[in-house]
Design a protein that fits this description.
Elements lengths: L1 E7 L8 E6 L6 E2 L10 E6 L7 E5 L2 E5 L7 E2 L7 E7 L7 E6 L2 E5 L7 E2 L16 E8 L2 E10 L2 E5 L7 E2 L2 H9 L14 H4 L1 E6 L7 E5 L2 E5 L7 E2 L10 E7 L7 E6 L8 E5 L7 E2 L10 E6 L7 E5 L3 E5 L7 E4 L6 E7 L1
Antiparallel strand pairs: 1-2, 1-28, 2-3, 4-5, 5-6, 6-7, 8-9, 9-10, 10-11, 12-13, 13-14, 14-15, 16-17, 17-18, 18-19, 20-21, 21-22, 22-23, 24-25, 25-26, 26-27
Length: 346
């Protein structure tokens, strides 16, 4: 088992890069081997069937390792695009998608050797922020392998029903929810109270129910049962005092099991990992005994061991369990880490 963590320097700190911890180790190693010094690592994806293949999306582009992180090569993505998300197609592993900033989606059909920028992968310009909008997460419906969904910060969600060739807006109903419900309004930088509902960080689609999409935004967790056309509030606040949702994942072992990283805010001194075993109907805190000192940013379950789960806070606390949450251990990334964005297990 290997854990990877991606660190950038966006709001402070002095350390960034890709960190790795191998089975049995208690310390973290900063990876080089072709990665630029000080790389801003924002996304990590391990190949679903070959754990030696790892992709890192960064401010400097897209990188791939074929030997579990020892050596890296930069893939031929456009130099002017930051990479914020990487997806290996679950049914055809030669097909890859990468989400970018400024907003766009790249596709490769030859395992990353060549890339094509997909047309019309953009959203209406609803919110003006201090940073360019970015595609934070991509997901494919296992029942409809041509259905691709994207979460945008700060732009809501969009979808493609033809493998990325055309895209449709999925955020209009998110705006409507904010306009109808005062408790879903939030404004930090822009001139609109819709900002919070459009501040999307992650989404996932499960084999348990086709066309059902879960979306993690500033205002909580939301669900669509009609392929992103409409949304309803999961009301995760019934189960957690923390509702700022940073990550949401489907278990690779059970399509009805979901994990969500919840915190008070983007910059906070608390955070927790929650799990639902009934496809989002109810949620329970999983990280009992853990005290995050910052926003909980990301979660990963081991693809070969359902009892092994890791999550990470923004300031570099990595919490791991090998007994399904009964006990946890904490390891720390180096001092100077302030902006963790990604965690993966392979």
């Amino acid at each position: 088992m290997t854990i990877y963590v991606g660190v950038a320097r966006r709001t402070g700190g002095t350390v960034s890069g890709v960190f790795r911890q191998k089975t049995g180790a208690s310390t973290w190693e900063l990876l080089g081997g072709g990665l630029p010094t000080g790389i801003h690592a924002q996304a990590i994806t391990v190949h679903p069937t070959n754990p030696d293949i790892v992709y890192v999306g960064a401010g400097e582009g897209l990188y791939r390792s074929s030997d579990a992180g020892n050596h890296w090569e930069r893939l031929n993505t456009p130099a002017d695009l930051q990479i914020w998300s990487v997806l290996v197609h679950p049914g055809n592993h030669r097909t890859l998608y990468a989400g970018t900033s400024p907003v766009g989606v790249l596709r490769s059909d030859d395992s990353g050797s060549t890339w094509r920028k997909l047309p019309n992968a953009r959203q209406p310009d609803r919110v003006k922020m201090s940073f360019p909008c970015r595609v934070m997460r991509l997901s494919i419906d296992p029942a409809h392998p041509e259905h691709v969904y994207a979460a945008l910060e700060v732009g809501g969600a969009m979808r493609s029903l033809d493998g990325g060739e055309t895209w449709q807006d999925c955020a209009a109903e998110l705006v409507n929810l904010a306009e109808r419900n005062p408790h879903l309004r939030s404004r930090l930088q822009s001139d609109t109270d819709n900002e919070g509902m459009l501040d999307a960080h992650a989404l996932c689609v499960s084999a348990a129910k086709p066309d059902t999409v879960f979306l993690a935004v500033r205002m909580g967790v939301f669900k669509s049962t009609d392929a992103g056309s409409t949304w309803q509030d999961v009301r995760v606040g019934r189960f957690s005092p923390l509702t700022y949702a940073r990550d949401i994942r489907v278990s690779p072992h059970d399509p009805k099991t979901l994990f969500a990283c919840l915190s008070p805010a983007a910059a906070s001194q608390d955070g927790s990992l929650y799990r639902s075993r009934d496809f989002g109907e109810t949620w329970q805190r999983l990280d009992r005994g853990v005290k995050a000192r910052a926003t909980m940013m990301a979660v990963a379950q081991d693809p070969r061991d359902a009892k092994s789960i890791s999550c990470v806070s923004r300031c570099g606390q990595v919490f791991s369990t090998s007994d399904d949450g009964a006990t946890w251990n904490e390891t720390l990334l180096p001092e100077g880490v302030h902006d963790v964005y990604a965690i993966a297990r392979g």
